Amino acid sequence: MLDIHKWRCRMDMNLDLKGLSCPGPVIQTKKALEKLASGLLTVTVDNETARDNVTRFARSQGCEVLIEGDAVAYRLQIRKVASQSASQEKELKVTAYINSEFMGTGSDELGKILMRAFLKTVPEVNPSIDTIIFVNGGVRLTAEGSPFIDTLKELQCQGTEIVSCGTCLDYFNLKDKLQVGKASNMYEIMSILAGSDRVVKP
Q1: How far apart are CA 42 and CA 8, in angstroms?
Q2: How far is it, in rounded angstroms, from Cα 3 to Cα 19?
Q3: What's domain 4-87's architecture?
Q4: By CB distance 3.0 to 4.6 Å, which of 82, 122, 146, 180 could disulfide with 152?
Q5: pLDDT at 3
Q6: Per-residue pLDDT reduced to its tens digit, 75-104
């Protein structure tokens, strides 16, 4: 059983993430844990969603989590040990497959917000996303008029390959309006998917 009093006397890092919306708390917690070889990280958030998301992430990284507080301020005490999962990591080829302008169904407005959050989170995940494939309505995200061009260009600069279906671009009359990445064919798209260790679909 964890001794909270021992935890309190060994605090190493503190993060005040109150007011930060998803996925911000998880991203900031991830960055802090990467800097912390071992020891304690205290994260303070002000809503249940952030509390639950940070807790799940920390536990997925092999950390132990203690939760204190209430809806005004939740304090998460995260203990990291030196020899956790890093030694078990291996290089995986991960591809994201996006076939719509929106993430999920039900509300296009919400779907656009979620898609923005998804793309913003891509640089923070481990293993990293090697390639993002856009097909069908998803190619609108890589073409002129898309609100995500700057985000995708930033991902491309960081090493993520951006691939759009050429047939799809033609269908929507967007071939000449492609703003980021390259137009490709179904053979190459299938080759990328078949050669991936994991395929992520938002």
Answers
A1: 10
A2: 29
A3: 2-Layer Sandwich (3.30)
A4: 180
A5: 52
A6: 999 998 875 444 444 578 999 999 999 999
Which of 92, 93, 91, 171 lies closest to 134 in space, CA to CA? 171
Phi/psi for 79 (5° steps) reads -105, 125
pLDDT digits (tens, 9 = 90+) for 109-168: 999 999 999 999 998 888 889 999 999 999 999 999 999 999 999 999 888 999 999 999
**CA 145 to each of CA 1, 150, 177: distance values in angstroms, whole numbers, following the listed order:** 55, 11, 9
Residues 14-40, mean pLDDT to the nearest whole number? 88
Nearest to 198 by CA among 106, 126, 103: 126
Taking the mean position of all CA atoms in its chain, how far away is CA 113? 14
Q: What CATH superfamily classification does 94-200 receive? A: DsrEFH-like (3.40.1260.10)
Whether this prediction's pTM lies above 0.70 is answered by no
Contact call for residues 140 and 101 (beta carbons, < 8 A):
yes
Encoded tokens for 93: 């080829």
